[in-house]
Amino acid sequence: MVNEDPSHEGLDGAPSQTSALQENPNLAAQPSVSGHPSISAHPSFSAHASTSAHPSVSIHPSVSVYPSSSAHPSTLAQPSGLVQPSSSGQPSSSGPEDLSVIKVSKRRWAVVLLFSCYSMCNAFQWIQYGSINNIFMNFYGVSAFAIDWLSMCYMLTYIPLLLPVAWLLEKFGLRTIALTGSALNCLGAWVKLGSLKPHLFPVTVLGQVICSVAQVFILGMPSRIASVWFGANEVSTACSIAVFGNQLGIAIGFLVPPVLVPNIKDKAELAYHISIMFYIIAGVATLLFILVVIVFKEKPKHAPSRAQSLSYTLASPDASYLSSIIRLFKNLNFVLLIISYGLNAGAFYSLSTLLNRMVILHYPGEEVNAGRIGLTIIIAGMFGAVISGIWLDRTKTYKETTLVVYVMTLVGMVVYTFTLNLGYLWVVFITAGAMGFFMTGYLPLGFEFAVELTYPESEGMSSGLLNVSAQIFGIIFTISQGQIIDTYGTMPGNIFLCVFLTLGVALTAFIRADLRRQKANKETPENKLQEEEESKTSKAPTPVSEEHL
């Protein structure tokens, strides 16, 4: 018997394997039991004794027919039937194409935190007008509806630009999209500095539209970054951190503008205060763009999870983009999630846009506290998002967690609706915080649940469709609730949202938990059964079937 020395992990053993196979092209791979210390539950290969002059050829124990040894399907069955290990125990390729090694990169935290920061900057610019709606109405001499459109333009531009940007994400990758998004965010912030006079409202609209285009390059990335850079037990937490930045930006957008821009009548002094806010955000956006250029990379050297490695293999550059969309809309569970997610996120967008107006109606002169209530909603939601992400990574109970959070969102919204007009601001702070914990905490849950339901389809496409739904419902709810508030008051407007959140709960209950990505990260039951049988007996080894290869 010709055996490879267990101590030879490098080049010394590799040629003998190759030559043995070349001399015996008809070798049939057989499972055998080996005493090599590196062997786990996966058996090594041996050659059939009857097919060669060599009684038996034992191959390196790290090579296995089982998918868990290498997530790249193409490496499981080469023309020669085996894969030759590298000389150093490391992948033979230095690029991300080497999918035989599953390893997370140390850079992953820098990437997700940097993305979170420029997402925060963009989200701040979304809400900075709405959080002091009455002050900008006075400065520019426009209606409340015109100021509302500065927030709604974010929702409007996203809808037609989703598909082009999602295509660009698939075509050019994460780095290009990150550079484009942060550059547009920076440009929009500097354009707004040209709108510091009352008659220059169109300039501030232009700057806001540029920032809204940047948002299209940002919103669909959290789940993609999590999948590309993070391991199987980190993806939900990473997605929560990525969404965390957007929520933090909204929170700062509620808190800072009322402090920096006081409600004063002198427009010259008001312009000075507005300029301070615009200069600060432009400087931050510029710094973040520079950091993205330096730090943000396309993808790690090695795939961080087996599911991601398989997705690299399954991805086809010639795949039809339209066919991917059609497949997603044929997935009933995903369609239900699109609608339920849109109802929840749309209600959140409407509440955020109209919060200042609702609070001022019941508590005149409380612009600063209106911003603090918004801050409370978002901060509570960020804790909810992070806790939900950690919970999902530990339990993988996507359907159950999503449903519970949705139900609690509805409960929180009902309580907030009936306590807003009681005349006690401290009560509003508590009820708004409880509602925000679940309402904004739901957002990353939706992203991760969508990836599970649609794997191996593009994360950018599934996230993008969720966001399109959110933007559509956000526009509808903001306009409708605004009109209801102006005509009938805040309570009917909030009841309007409660009705649609109830519909969202019902739709979520009908979603079936088809967790495809989790299945890809696990070994199949057939493989586990095969391993158990082989561990019990190896008296009569049989040829490995083509299905296993």
From TrEMBL:
This is Choline/ethanolamine transporter FLVCR2. It is a multi-pass membrane protein. PROSITE patterns: MFS. It catalyses: choline(out) = choline(in); heme b(in) = heme b(out); ethanolamine(in) = ethanolamine(out). Residues 1-11, 520-530 have a biased composition (Basic and acidic residues). InterPro entries: FLVCR1-2_SLC49-like (IPR049680), MFS (IPR011701), MFS_dom (IPR020846), MFS_trans_sf (IPR036259). It comes from Sus scrofa. Residues 15-51 have a biased composition (Polar residues). Pfam families: MFS_1. It is found in: Cell membrane; Endoplasmic reticulum membrane; Mitochondrion membrane. It comes from the Eukaryota. Belongs to the major facilitator superfamily. Feline leukemia virus subgroup C receptor (TC 2.A.1.28.1) family. Residues 111-516 form the Major facilitator superfamily (MFS) profile domain. Its main location: membrane.
